Amino acid sequence: MDIAEIERIIHAGVPLAAAWRIEVLAAAAGAATLRLPADPRLLRPGDTVSGPALMGLADVAMWAALLSVQGGRDNSVTSTMTVNFLRPAGPGPVLAEARLVKRGKRMLFGEILLRAETSVDTAVHITTTWAVIGAAAGA
Q: Which of 15, 18, 29, 129 gets the highest tally of CB atoms within 10 A of its CB?
C-alpha cells in the first residue's frame, strides 16, 4: 500500500485531517511520518499550534502507522492517549513520527513524537493504546 492511498483513507475517514491538509510523508512497517502545514486557524495565543490540533495530528499519525501493517484496513479505536507537552511546537509546520510499539490481539500500543519541522527537538511526546475491534457491521 502506498502513502497516497493511506492519505486518501485518512482524509476520508477523518474529514478534519483533510480540512487541516495533513500530509502522509511515509508509512510502512508500523511507522509513519505525517506533516501538519502551518495554518493560522490552528494557533493559540503565543503563536504556537494549539494542543487540540497537536493531539489530532498525533492520533491520525498513529492510525497511519496501523494502516501500514493492516493493508489499509483498520477498525481499531483510540482507547488512551497520554500527552506530554515539552515545549511549544511553534506556528507550524509540525511533523509527527508514529510507531507501533506492540501489537496484541486486543490492544495496540504506540508512541508518537511531534516536533516543529525546523527543529530536531521533540515538542510533544505521546503514548497511546488502541482497542482492536472486529469488522464494522455489514462489512
A: 129
